[in-house]
Amino acid sequence: MPTTRNQDKDKINREVADVILKTKEPPVARFRLLSGGMEPYHRLDIKDENSVITGDKGCLACGNCIDSCPVLRKYPERFQLTEQRTSFALEACVGEDCEQCYSCILACPQVDTAYKDYIVDEVAPETIQPAPRITSLDSYFMAIIALVMGIMIGVFIAR
Ligand code: SF4
Ligand code: SF4
C-alpha cells in the first residue's frame, strides 16, 4: 500500500547507502537518518497537542533491530551490556562483529521502504552467495565409486 511520502527507490541516495552498507558496523541508525522520518499518519499517543513529530528521525526504542540481529542471537550474553533496545544499544553490543545481513534495516519502522526495496531487490542478490555446491563431497563419492569399479574390473580380468 503506498504511503503519503514518495517511496520511489530510484530517488534514494544510493551513493551514501552503498558506503554505509559496505561498512562492517550496524547500519540501521544511519539508514534511519537517510530516511524521511515519522510519517504524518503515525499512531503514537502524544500528550502535548502542540508537539509535531512528523519527520522526526529519532530511534523509537522499539527494539526491532535488536531482535532481528543474528550476532545477538549467537551471543545473547552481549545483552548484559545494556538494558536499552535502541540503535545505540545495537551498535554497542555488536560493533565491528556486524555480519552485514541488513536485517536491522529491514526491521526498522523508521527506515523508508524505498531503502528496504533497494536492499532486497538489488543489494542482497549480489552480496548473499548461493549455497555452495557440494563439489568436494561429490568428488569424494566419485573417488569411492571409481575405486569400487576398478576393483570389480580387476577381479573380472583376473578370472
Ligand atoms: S542485523 Fe545484521 S546488519 Fe544489523 S547489526 Fe546485526 S549483523 Fe549487522
Ligand atoms: S528498529 Fe526500532 S530500536 Fe531499532 S533503530 Fe529502528 S526505531 Fe530504533
How many whole angstroms does the radius of gyration measure?
25 Å
Percent of residues in helices: 40-55%
Please give the number of β-strands. Answer: 0
Total separate domains: 1
Unreliable residue runs: none
Percent in strands: under 5%
SSE topology string? HHHHHHHH
What separation lies between the terminal Cα atoms?
77 Å
Overall shape: elongated
- Helix count, DSSP H or I runs of 4 or more residues: 8
Arithmetic mean pLDDT:
89
Bound molecules: iron/sulfur cluster
Secondary-structure-derived class:
mainly alpha
- Report the sheet with the most strands, covering strand number, pairing sense and barrel closure: none
Question: How is this structure best summarized?
Answer:
With 159 residues, the protein is mainly alpha-helical.
Architecture overview:
This protein is an all-alpha fold and 159 residues long. The protein has one domain. Helices cover 49% and strands 0% of the residues. It contains 8 helices and no strands. The model has no long low-confidence stretch (mean pLDDT 89). The protein binds iron/sulfur cluster (SF4) (2 copies). The site of one iron/sulfur cluster (SF4) has 15 residues, from helix 4, helix 5 and helix 6. One iron/sulfur cluster binds next to helix 2 and helix 3.
Spell out the key features of this protein:
159 residues; mainly alpha; 0% strand; binds iron/sulfur cluster
Strand-helix topology:
Elements: H1 14-22, H2 28-34, H3 64-68, H4 70-74, H5 87-94, H6 103-107, H7 113-127, H8 135-158
Bound molecules: iron/sulfur cluster (2 copies).
One iron/sulfur cluster (SF4) is lined by residues 28-29, 32, 59-65, 85-87, 107-110.
